[in-house]
Please model this.
Amino acid sequence: MRILATGGAGYVGSAMVRLLVSRGFEVTVYDNLSKGFRAAVPADCLIEGDLAEGDKLRRVLKEHRIEVVAHFAGSITVGESMVNPRHYYRNNIGNSLVLLEAMQVSQVEKIIFSSTATVYAPVSQGVLTEESPLGPANPYAVSKYTIERMIEDFAAANGWSYVLLRYFNACGASSDGRYGEAHDPETHLIPQVLQAALGQREKISIFGADYDTPDGTCIRDYVHVDDLAEAHVLALKAVEAGKSYTYNVGTGTGNSVLEVIRAAEEVVGGKIPTEITGRRPGDTSRLVAGSERIKREWGWQPKYQTLTEIIETAWRWHREHPNGYQEKN
Ligand code: UFG
Model:
C-alpha cells in the first residue's frame, strides 16, 4: 500500500514512518516542518508542503498514487488551545477539511487519524472505554472531536474506510536512542523532567496538587511512541480490508505527575527539583485508557509496559541529544 503521512516528520508520525519504511512499505511524508524535523525521516520520503495548499496536496496524492492517508498533522497542546483557539480551529479543523476534500477529489478512500483521549468527557475515576461519553473540554479536544465526525461523515457518504486511533500520552524514544521527542517550546511532562535532570531547566512545575486523585496530581496513561506506531501497522491492515474502527490506544495504567517524577529520578539516579504551582487551564484530572478492544480485536499489545522502561528510552535520547535534532530544517 502507498501511504501518505501528513505531519509525518513529527514525533508520533515519524515513529510510524520509520517503522513502515523498515518493513518495506512505500511512504510519502507531507509536512510543512513547522514542528517536524527533516532528520526524523528518511530524506527520500519527505515532501515539504502545507495542508492548506489544497492544489499541491491533490498533486501529491495523484503523483504518488496514494491509497491511504495517515493523518498526523495538527497542533497538539491543550494549554495553547485555551489561549489561541482560532489556531486550533484553523490549523486542525480547517486544514483537515482541505485534506478530506483533496482525498475525495483524488479518490483516496482510506484514512487513519491521530485522535486523542481528550475527546472523552472528563472523569475522575476508572478507565475510558470507547463507549465512554464524549465531551471534549478544550479547543484542542473539540478540534480532534470535530475531525473524527468529519471523517465519519465523509466515509459514510463516499464509502471510505477509516481508523480513528485515540492516543493517550505519547512518550519515549526509539530503543537505539536516535529518535525522540523534541518540541519547541517543550510543554510535555516527561521531556521537561529529563531536561531538568540534565540541568537545562531549573525545576519542574507541578500543575496542581489539589486534584481528586490519590496524591493530588493529574493522572495520565503514558504509552510508548513505538507502540503507537505498531497500532498504525494494524490499522493499515484494517483499512486495506475495507473496515472501519475507533480504538483507544494506551497501556491501561495511570500514573500521576509525582509518579512520573519519581520514576524519572530512579532512571537518572538523582533528584529532580520541583515546585507546585496552580492548575494548568484545560487539564483534566484523569485520562486512562481502556484498551481492551484493540488488544482483543487486533492483538495489539504495548511492548513497553512500565513507566521506567519508557523513561529509560527517553533518557537515552535526551542524554545523547541534549539539543534535540541537530540538523537544521
Ligand atoms: N504537567 C505538569 N508540569 C509540566 C507539564 C505537564 O505538571 O511542566 C502535567 C500536566 O498538568 C498533565 C501531565 O503533566 O497532568 C501531562 O501533561 P503533558 O503536557 O505532558 O500532556 P497532556 O496530558 O496535557 O496532553 C498530551 C498531548 C495531547 C494529548 C493528551 C492525551 O499533548 O495532545 O496527552 O492524553 F491529547
Observations:
- The chain has a mean pLDDT of 97.
